[in-house]
Design a protein that fits this description.
Blueprint lengths: L11 H11 L4 H10 L7 E11 L5 E6 L8 E3 L10 H20 L15 E6 L40 H9 L1 H20 L3 H7 L1 E10 L5 E10 L14 H14 L2 E3 L8 E3 L6 E4 L11 H11 L18 H5 L4 H13 L22 E3 L7 H20 L11 E12 L3 H35 L1
Antiparallel strand pairs: 1-2, 1-3, 1-11, 4-6, 4-9, 5-6, 5-10, 7-8
Pfam families: RepSA (PF20199)
Protein name: Replication initiation protein
InterPro entries: RepSA, RepSA_streptomyces
Length: 463
């Protein structure tokens, strides 16, 4: 790698540390470790050793000890899904989410879904929060209520027209109960499906299943909303076709009816009145097309959209991506006024609703749920995808060392390992190096993907 002056080396401390690294005897191995993490921004450091022995003879077939590594430690990827924390690991997480959602749309036997699910009724639904007060927005070709036509990146978008009358308490309490609203929605959806099919819930359950995969996203105003793929399956899940009555129209009507029924009551507390939380009126349900046909809601578009937002959180609204201990920290962190007031409201309401843990989730503007969830039979799991990747790398390592696979008939090996935590993160120079490695890896992958997409056309022309 060239160490000529480049972007990010304007800081003298960073430049000095890069030069120190370049002159160190373990520089090549440090580069290799960082590359193996994908350019992780905050790697975990481990100390330890592994020994692989022949069970019969006790002969050592392979041994590894971090004492032989630069600094006496091994770096592994942090695995953080937040793009604001680690772009490299978030990129991997987004890729896994993409394949998970796509497998539930186009089918992938290796991921638990047959190709026939393309014939199942499927929709892409967006459920939003209600209004907590008018905000600056871009309503089509019309000017905002303030009389200004805001630019797409205008900082005032999503902020209240009148902050003093905006229902900040309602906004953070709605975020805090959003997962409960979704849970009740899934319950009512099955009831509404049975009602429209003219069946009891037990009969409807015996004939069909409803599968979903969803992701949470923050609107500019700081309110969470959910995007969900909702799919009709047969009685045996994705492996069986849905009954004739399980149509797109029935599913769409049931979604609207279920969303309208959801209500979560909050009792009064202190100076806060009793509230009934519900979904907003902006409910969007669109059919997912198996192929383009001029539609923009295609399988590819949906999977890409969900994956994009799986790595983002409340920091997209101007808040921070870690917990905040007190209001004074908001000034030091230079949090903009609107998210600052939402965070302050969380801290103020914590004493009134201690079971809701609003202080712990103030940096998330009250939301405490999972960003990406799915039903059991939608498709594979993120854990299974990670395990497949780990198994692949382990197989590569065994082949390179000439060791038999653990499940091979001739396998007679025993591996013993011991690891301890030794810290995390990078020095300034290592951080610069990791950023460059991450960008190189992503560029190479994007180039390879574009070449793969162009390959069928090239073969057709060659033929």
């Amino acid at each position: 790698m060239s160490l000529a002056p480049a972007a990010g080396l304007e800081d003298p401390a960073t430049l000095a540390d890069v030069l120190r690294l370049a002159g160190s005897p373990g520089f090549d191995r440090i580069q290799d470790q960082i590359r193996r993490t994908g350019g992780c921004s905050d790697p975990i450091h481990l100390r330890g050793a592994t020994v692989t022995r022949d069970r019969a003879t006790g002969h050592v077939l392979h041994a590894y000890d971090t004492d032989n590594e630069p600094g006496g430690r091994l770096r592994i990827a942090c695995g953080n899904r937040r793009a604001s924390r680690c772009p490299a690991c978030a990129w991997t997480y987004a890729g896994d989410t993409y394949h998970l959602i796509r497998a539930g749309l186009v089918g992938d036997p290796a991921k638990g879904t047959p190709p026939t699910i393309r014939n199942h009724p499927r929709v892409f639904a967006t459920l939003t929060a209600p209004s907590f007060g008018p905000v600056h927005n871009r309503p089509g070709t019309r000017p905002c209520r303030c009389g200004i036509r805001h630019a797409e990146d205008a900082p005032e978008l999503g902020t209240p027209l009148d902050p003093d009358t905006y229902d900040y308490a309602g906004a953070v309490l709605w975020n805090n109960h959003a997962s409960d609203l979704w849970r009740y929605f899934t319950i009512y959806l099955r009831r509404e499906i049975a009602k429209r099919a003219g069946l009891t819930q037990k009969e409807a359950h015996a004939q069909s299943r409803v599968a979903f995969g969803k992701v949470a996203e923050y609107q500019k105003r700081g309110a969470v909303h959910f995007h969900a793929v909702i799919r009709f399956d047969g009685p045996d899940g994705p492996d069986s076709p849905p009954p004739a009555w399980a149509t797109l129209d029935l599913l769409t009507d049931a979604i609207h009816a279920a969303a309208a029924r959801v209500a979560v009551d909050i009792p009064p507390a202190g100076d806060q009145p009793a509230r009934t939380l519900a979904w907003g009126t902006q409910l969007d349900v669109r059919t997912i097309r198996a192929f383009g046909d001029g539609e923009d809601i295609t399988e590819q578009a949906v999977a890409s959209y969900v994956a994009k937002y799986a790595t983002k959180a409340a920091e997209t609204t101007g808040t921070v991506d870690r917990r905040i201990g007190n209001k004074e920290a908001l000034t030091l962190l230079d949090v903009p006024e609107h998210p600052r007031r939402l965070i302050e409201t969380c801290l103020d309401l914590h004493a009134l609703y201690p079971d809701r843990k609003l202080r712990d989730w103030a940096h998330m503007l009250g939301f405490r749920g999972h960003f990406s969830t799915k039903s059991r039979r939608y498709s594979t799991t993120l854990g299974a995808l990670r395990q497949t990747r780990a198994d692949y790398r382990a197989t590569q390592q065994r082949e390179a060392l000439g060791l038999p696979a653990p499940d091979a008939p001739e396998a007679t090996t025993l591996t013993l390992a011991h690891w301890t935590y030794a810290g995390h993160g990078h020095s300034p120079g290592e951080s610069w190096l990791a950023g460059n490695i991450r960008r190189d890896i992503q560029l190479n992958r994007e180039t390879a993907r574009e070449a793969l997409q162009d390959q069928p056309d090239w073969e057709e022309r060659a033929a």
